[in-house]
Structures are given as structure tokens and as C-alpha cells.
Amino acid sequence: MDSHDKDVKLFKKKDFNNGNIPEKKERSRWKNPNLLSSLDFALSGIWTAFKEERNMRKHAFSAIAAIIFGLIFQISEFEWLFLLLAIFLVFMAELFNSAIENVVDLASDYQFYMRAKRAKDMAAGAVLVISGFALIVGLVIFLPKIWQFFF
User: Annotated catalytic sites, by residue?
Assistant: First the structure.
């Protein structure tokens, strides 16, 4: 258990009996009171994914390489749109995958359950599918330019 997990208030079913709702100050502790705190939570989540998820760093390296190739080959605006769409879709899928894996681990108490495995495998499959799309976009954009460069 991480040190930041120790200050979490766990609500039990009985806290909600007879329509009772925990005190607002306890519930709002984790709510986003304004736009800046929402942005802070979102950026914290992205930063956490980059720090803790090896595949997110690999995707970032691939994205930087694709952008550098885009600059070198001076791709068109339309090609930039597809390239950036592919990059952001891969990042989004990896963030969702990481979130799903964390929630499944928490819900399964880090025990092996076939349903937990299936959920995590499906989330990883979603990243694979969108990564395949990104690969196809990269090939369609860059293969003709590389071919023209060498021949």
C-alpha cells in the first residue's frame, strides 16, 4: 500500500443506509472545485502514466520519432491531421488501459481471477488495435516519401 493510500476515507455500505449520504466536506475532498484543480488532476494522471507505465514511454518515443519524420519529410496539413490523430488516440487508449488495469487490480485485491484477466487483456487489445491504426497511418504517410527519397 502506498503512503498516499493511507489517508483515504473508505465508505461502507452502512454509510449510505436509509438514504444517508456522507458529509459533503468528505465527499468533496476528491471533487474538482474549479477548472484549475480539474486540470491539475488530469495532468497528474498523465504524468503518473508516463512515470509508471513503460508502454506509455515507448508510445511517447514513437510519437516524437513520427513528429521528427513529419518535420523532415515536410508532410502536408492533411497528413499532419492523421498523424496527430493516431498519436493522440494511442495515448488515450494507453491511459484508459492503465486506468482499467489499476481499477481491476484494486477490485480483485491483486488476486488472479479469470474475469480480471479478461478485462485487462481486452483493454490491452484496444491499445493494440489503435496502435495498428497508427502503424498503418505512419506507413501510408511515410513509405511513399522514404521510397521517393531513396529511388
Answer: 94
Which residues does the annotation place in the binding site for ATP? 29, 53, 101, 120-121
pLDDT tens profile 42-99: 999 999 999 999 999 999 999 999 999 999 999 999 999 999 999 999 999 999 999 9
Annotated binding site for substrate: 29, 94
- Model confidence at 3, in pLDDT bands (50, 70, 90)? very low
Provide DSSP, the chain: --GGGTTPPPP-GGGGGGG----HHHHGGGS--SHHHHHHHHHHHHHHHHHH-HHHHHHHHHHHHHHHHHHHTT--HHHHHHHHHHHHHHHHHHHHHHHHHHHHHHHTTT---HHHHHHHHHHHHHHHHHHHHHHHHHHHHHHHHHHHHH-
The pLDDT > 70 percentage for the chain reads: 83
